[in-house]
Amino acid sequence: MKLFGAFKHESTLEAACKDLQQERTIFWKRCCRLESALKALKKRANDKAKMRPTLFKMTYKGVYTVQACSLARMMVTTGTAEAKVGGALQEIGRILGIKIKWKMSKRTVQRTVLESGVAADIQLAYEMAKAESKSK
User: Residues near 4 by Cβ (< 8 Å), separated by ≥ 6?
Assistant: First the structure.
């Protein structure tokens, strides 16, 4: 009878060993898939980094883009002198590895700031005209 119990115990050990081997195989395959996925992700990130533009065009058909004007306005509101904004934009671009072809002039920076002020006034007047009066 003891012998029969030993055989029973041995079969459960063999089943447990077989289960462990299957789990080990599953984990090994997962690791291989993760390694290949990580390799593909690194390659995609590297390719995307190489594809970024190295030339930032501040103008489109001779007119400064909205992004360039908003950068100039932001720099003026943070305290950069209007005459220094164009050179500062070029220097920032150079540090980031982006070539900026044209330098924005002092007068252009003044115009962008003025345009934003006028646009804000128009928007304020529109909002005031649209709002219902609270006082009579």
Answer: none
Q: 114-134: per-residue pLDDT in tens?
A: 887 777 778 878 888 888 766
* Residue whose pair of structure tokens reads 């993760």 in the numeric block: 34
Structural contact between residues 99 and 57, judged by C-beta atoms closer than 8 angstroms: no
Rounded Cα distance between 54 and 50, Å, is: 9
Assign 128 to helix, strand or coil: helix
Query: What does the alpha-carbon distance between residue 72 and residue 66 come to, in Å, rounded to a whole number?
Result: 10
12-41 b/e (C-beta count within 10 Å ≥ 16 → b): eeeeeeeeeeeeeeeeeeeeeeeeeeeeee
Q: Convert the pLDDT of each residue in 23-36 to its tens digit.
A: 999 999 999 999 99
Q: Which residues of 1-136 form beta strands (DSSP E)?
A: 55-56, 59-60, 63-64, 99-100
